[in-house]
Amino acid sequence: MSLHTPGIKENVTSGTGEELREPPMYKVLLHNDDYTTMDFVVEILKAVFNKSTEDAIKIMLKVHVEGVGGCGIYTFEVAETKVKTVHVIAAEKGFPLKCTMEEE
């Protein structure tokens, strides 16, 4: 069944003449330190970034071995909120866990 009416042409434009672009995306990163426990990093990854236990452990080990690990890629507002959430939770637990974001 066709949704088009015979003889009627559809032409859709934005009205402004501008192309619509995807918003810039941002990587959220965790950084290694000598004080934050591995267990806490795994819990942050699960709670804030919705990672499975297996994925959280893989990311935590990358942070531990390489010094930094990616948690996900998000729009600016979502990335900013996740960074702030990590800092608030870490501070409440007394950990200096550093979380940053950078444009993808």
Can you describe what's shown?
The chain has 104 residues and is α+β, with helices and mostly antiparallel strands. It has a domain at 35-103: Ribosomal Protein L30, Chain: A. It has 3 helices and 3 strands; from the N terminus they run E-H-H-E-H-E. A 3-stranded antiparallel beta sheet has the order 2-1-3. Helix 1 packs antiparallel against helix 3 (76-93). The relative contact order is 0.24. The model has no long low-confidence stretch (mean pLDDT 90).
Give the tally of β-strands: 3
Task: Summarize the helix and strand pattern as letters.
Answer: EHHEHE
Overall spatial form: elongated
User: What's the architecture of the domain at 35-103 in CATH terms?
Assistant: 2-Layer Sandwich
What is the mean predicted local confidence, pLDDT? 90
Radius of gyration, in Å, reads 21 Å
- Roughly what percent helix? 40-55%
Can you list the strand order of the major beta sheet?
2-1-3
- What summary fits the major beta sheet? 3 strands, antiparallel
